[in-house]
Specification:
The structure is a single chain. The chain is an alpha/beta fold. The protein has one domain: TIM Barrel, CATH 3.20.20. 45% of the residues lie in helices and 14% in strands. The protein contains twelve helices and eight strands. It has an eight-stranded parallel barrel with strand order 1-2-3-4-5-6-7-8, surrounded by nine helices. Strand 6, helix 9 and strand 7 form a beta-alpha-beta unit. Helix 2 packs parallel to helix 12, helix 10 crosses helix 12 and helix 11 packs antiparallel against helix 12. The longest helix has 18 residues. The protein is globular and about 45 Å long.
Length: 269
Amino acid sequence: MSDTQVKKQESLEAYLTERRGQRRLLMPYVTAGVCPDWLELVDAVIDAGADAIEIGIPFSDPAIDGTTIQEATVVALEAGMTPARCLTELSQRQFGVPLIAMTHYNLVYRYGHERFADDLVAAGGWGTILPDLPMEHGADWTAIAAERGIENVLLAAPVTSDARLQRVADESGGFVYVVSTMGTTGARAGVDDAATVLATRVKSMTNKPAVVGFGISNGETAVTAAKAADGVIIASALMRRILEGQSVEEAASLVAEVRAALDEAYPAG
């Protein structure tokens, strides 16, 4: 377990902005309950060089998840994972980086905005990613979240118009989630130029960190994706290792590999 818990004395955006001045950001994703020792996995990927962690709260009807995250979700749900259990288990540990809940708005709505926000803060949460909550309909949640210091991250896709992208950049909390390609989540052999183009567009509109997700599978794809961005998210490739029966340490070695590749390609300063 991490010896210290990061002190929430600043916003997620400020924290990540400071960190990106030192290195490319790395945000692994862990499905809550994907394995019995999933909390140890969170600790392990932090030790491997994560700057923040996305915690996937399982939902039975995912909107953008590919086959690997869907499989991880089924495993977690069959093991009895629920939103309340996820947040309770997280609250009993201390972690050295911010946690960001990635789930579906249906769960937040049913949980109750205020209750979910309070429990997320108690669990060490700094933000949320709710892909199925359009910004046009998110005011109720974002207002309550903001009162508790929780920032709601918005996603930008390659086909997003300039006008809408500017609004996403303005209204996103913490960072802008740059979707590298059209489609669902999942590790891919390569990351195409769409990620670079979109990250460049985002960074021309805001100073918030632009972090690329979808398709990051190893150090090579991470370096490519981070060319014009401030960092990357690695999800399906990490969860695939767990689903294949690898140990926490073996799975976390992927994060260490990506961390080393990013640091070599983009040294500080």
